[in-house]
Amino acid sequence: MKSNNTKLVTRRPTLKTLSHKQIKTTIYIKSSTPYISALKRTKKFLANLRKNNSKYVSLMGMGKAVEKTLAIGCYFQNEKGNGIDIITKTVEVIDELMETESMGMHEDAGVQDVEEQSDDDRETFLKKGRLVGLK
């Protein structure tokens, strides 16, 4: 199947089952996360380490956010003198793809129109892949 004729079926992500301690020590960085906001949030988490009875704060970023995650870690290593450990992690994922609308020809006018199908009627297939990120 050609990638031109398929589209990714988007669904909500599964709920993360994290303990209270993990919630208070884990920050997820997206590519759209503002750099300064992430720095302030990380400073706040580091200030509350003793209160949360933890030894470290985890910054997690995948894809385009890896560079930003590394930049935040390097800021705290260089400016604040904190130690950082960089851990890469690979996660296997399965994408659900759906064939896009096929183009048909009207016999009378020679005009292209789109065949109307509901999303339930379209055939979907699964594609396996891997994501690499930092922890």
UniProtKB/TrEMBL annotation:
MF terms in GO: ribonuclease MRP activity; ribonuclease P activity; RNA binding
Keyword Nucleus: yes
Pfam families xrefs: Rpp20
Keyword match tRNA processing: yes
Major place of residence: nucleus
Taxonomy, superkingdom: Eukaryota
Keyword terms: Nucleus, tRNA processing
Chain residue ranges for the region called Disordered: 106-135
Acidic residues bias spans: 113-122
Organismal lineage: Eukaryota, Fungi, Dikarya, Ascomycota, Saccharomycotina
Subcellular compartments: Nucleus
PANTHER family recorded: RIBONUCLEASES P/MRP PROTEIN SUBUNIT POP7, RIBONUCLEASES P_MRP PROTEIN SUBUNIT POP7
Protein known as: Uncharacterized protein
Gene Ontology biological process terms from the UniProt entry: intronic box C/D snoRNA processing; maturation of 5.8S rRNA; nuclear-transcribed mRNA catabolic process, RNase MRP-dependent; tRNA 5'-leader removal
Cellular component, GO, one term: ribonuclease MRP complex
Gene3D superfamilies hit by this protein: Alba-like domain (3.30.110.20)
